[in-house]
Amino acid sequence: EPLSGECVADPCETLRCPDDEICEMGECVPDPTALPDAGPGRVDSGGGFDAGRPEDPEDRVLAAGGCMCRATGGGSSSSGGWLALLLLGAVFLRRRRRRGSKGLGKGAAAAAAVAALLFASGCDVDPFCLTCGDEIVDAGDAGEPMDAAPMDATVDSGTDAGFERPDACVPEAVETCNEFDDDCDELIDEDFDLTTDINHCGGCGMACAPPHAFGECVDAMCGIASCDVGWHDLDMDPDNGCEYRCLASETDDAICDLRDNDCDGVVDEDVAFDTDPENCGVCGRSCRFAHATAGCDMGTCTVASCDMGFTDLDGVLDNGCEYACTASTPPDEICDGRDDDCDGTVDEGDPGGGGACGSSVGECTTGTEACTSGAITCMGATSPTTELCNGLDDDCDGMTDEGNPEGGRLCGTGTGTCDQGREQCMGGALVCTGETGPTAELCNGLDDDCDGTIDEGDPGGGGSCGTSTGRCMAGLEHCRGGVVVCEGATGPIAETCDGVDQDCDGTVDEGNPGGGGSCGTDVGTCSPGVRTCTAGALVCTGSTGAGPETCDSLDNDCDGSIDEGNPDGGASCGLTTGECSGGTQVCLAGTLQCQGGTGPGTESCNGLDDDCDGATDEGNPGGGAACGSSAGECTSGTQMCMGGGLTCVGGSGPAPEVCNGLDDDCDGNVDEGNPGGGATCGSSAGSCSPGTLSCIAGALQCQGGSGPSTELCNAVDDDCDGMTDEGNPEGGASCGSSIGACSPGTTTCSGGALTCSGGTSPVSESCNSTDDDCDGNVDEGNPGGGASCGTSTGACSAGTQTCIGGAFMCTGGSGPSSEVCDGVDNDCDGNVDEGNPG
């Protein structure tokens, strides 16, 4: 619409009118150019109207898409406007006649310029008007009637109805395109090139006038030279001309507005729906995600990258980069109770663990380092203990039973002829040394065996006295009052195998007494024999007896079990160097085998002695390859095994840009993007509070927050290292007592408070001549005593257990004496006057 500049539907686009009518403003009206005797719309090709017309017809103007100018300000039509418009059409049509297709572009430009001038003058252009006023305008040279073929109509060039031939030629006549020799020169239509003439394209009267376009005739074929302003030929079909009505506002269609801005028939085809996060898939779909930079992939919103300090851990698109975490540099997990690599798990993979720890000296065994609660601890090891008197290295210092463990106490007794000594650890057991010990009781009126009783057990007595044969005696010797006396007599008894002539016949053990039966066993390697009285004892003669069990798949000790108790086994075996661990010899299937150890493997770069040769990571395992780059701060180097990992030595590679005044990522920029800045820094462990990292002069500085202080024993992480009360803060002073058996210890911080550890504390007093409770008194209060002791049988009476000189003695009772013939159980054995005393 020329006045408003808006695109409107063409009211004549789909309307088809009869041959003698044309469409004007959406209605069919009579064609003002139709001739009554030449057929509707037939126009000659530059030589005038058809011969069948009247000789001087009234000229009419038929302009392609002609125009009518109406003053917008009101009033009647301006003759000046009409004249200008008609002159425009005449000039345009004349150039078409003279120049053919070569002048179409310039003619169109001129027409557009004049039309613009008319619009600027306040005129409305009616593109459907074909007659512009009543005036007759000669648009061509004298004698050359102008071509008035309408651009919106295709001219019929048929030879039977499109034109009429004269009856005879006329010399010097003007040759017209009618398939006839008009000028009698024996040439037909010689002034017309039917291969290029747009008015006679391929045949006389066949005008090349595509709709909404400037036509061109090439090789007798009608084509489109250019389109009218606001029209476009999209389907490349000359029959319908420039069929697409559109005013281009852009050179492409990259603006997503659901319009065909570049008039190519496609809407928004240059919008990157597959990759544009502001128009992802469709216009206006803007991709937005929390803590992330959005992207668009094949029309689907994606997370292109996460904001610093955030990670897309769960892979859920809707919540963006939901996990707040800043990875360490490098982003490797270490044992610190934190998620260093931002994978959602703390200290996974046992970082820093796996190494051997502890000691294998003495009774100690090594363990394995493991990451536990953010710290490396030794798991599975057997630790040193207090040294005991057992023949073992309990404290794992390479020495056995050093320092006389558990020794030094009084031992023995001071009763009778005995004197006390001191306990000494010898050969893995406590031995009483320096004492005068008990001896066999003699009949001497003394307590020789130091049991508190004199001449007990009839020492020196029991021998025969008087005349006897074999075991028979006239009497027996007894100790009485420190002197041996002969009492009673002994008669013959049945012979037994004891090397004694019990039956007093002068022969010892005659008749194999007690013998004759089967003996021994046939279990295992043993075989039975026969009991025989030999040298006063029954022995098994002819048998194979049990021996020590050995690792040979036999029952050597004849107990029904084979190789039980791991015979000959138990010794250490295998290597203990590096990652190897020794095993134990075990008796299996009659042979000793080494089990439970770890053998050598191939050396790898891990800081361990894998092949157990005493060297770690020797030979640069896994290394030697070139590494790194020479761009920016990068330099190439060689991979070397160092510290248990492959390290690029002699060069440096690209790394994420950090705040250090260097081009770490080798892109030509130093510390771009404030690397590392803005993140939380410092520690929130313990009493610390975090600050904010800022990149200043090539270094990250932590601003704000509160830092660590000296660690105190208060169950608080004062120095903010993730550990509480480490290093025994405020401890180390001497504590406890050195009185008696006590020894001072050292103050130790435990559970947020100082405690005394490492010393010997008071214990309950016991009867050992030692001040166990460290109160300055030894064995006070009769410790452990008070129980009844002795016997109340016969003439005896019970006493009380009393701690005397570090040992228990029975006091206050009466003990047994030699039996006498008085109707009393003098020796308190439950029998009265046994043995015929006296």
Question: Briefly, what is this?
Answer:
This protein is mainly beta. It contains two helices and 39 strands.
Please write out the topology.
Elements: E1 21-24, E2 27-30, E3 69-71, H1 79-99, H2 104-120, E4 123-125, E5 213-218, E6 221-227, E7 231-232, E8 244-245, E9 292-297, E10 300-306, E11 310-311, E12 323-324, E13 356-357, E14 367-372, E15 375-379, E16 410-411, E17 421-426, E18 429-433, E19 464-465, E20 475-480, E21 483-487, E22 518-519, E23 529-534, E24 537-541, E25 572-573, E26 583-588, E27 591-595, E28 626-627, E29 637-642, E30 645-649, E31 680-681, E32 691-696, E33 699-703, E34 734-735, E35 745-750, E36 753-757, E37 788-789, E38 799-804, E39 807-811
Antiparallel strand pairs: 1-2, 3-4, 5-6, 7-8, 9-10, 11-12, 13-14, 14-15, 16-17, 17-18, 19-20, 20-21, 22-23, 23-24, 25-26, 26-27, 28-29, 29-30, 31-32, 32-33, 34-35, 35-36, 37-38, 38-39
Helix pairs in contact: 1-2
Please describe what this structure looks like.
Helix content is 5%, strand content 20%. The N and C termini lie far apart (163 Å). The chain contains two helices and 39 strands. It has 838 residues and is mainly beta. The longest helix is centred in the first third of the chain and has 21 residues, at 79-99.
Strands of the widest sheet, in order across it, are 13-14-15
Q: Give the percentage of residues in beta strands.
A: 15-25%
Number of strands: 39
Biggest β-sheet: count, sense, barrel?
Answer: 3 strands, antiparallel
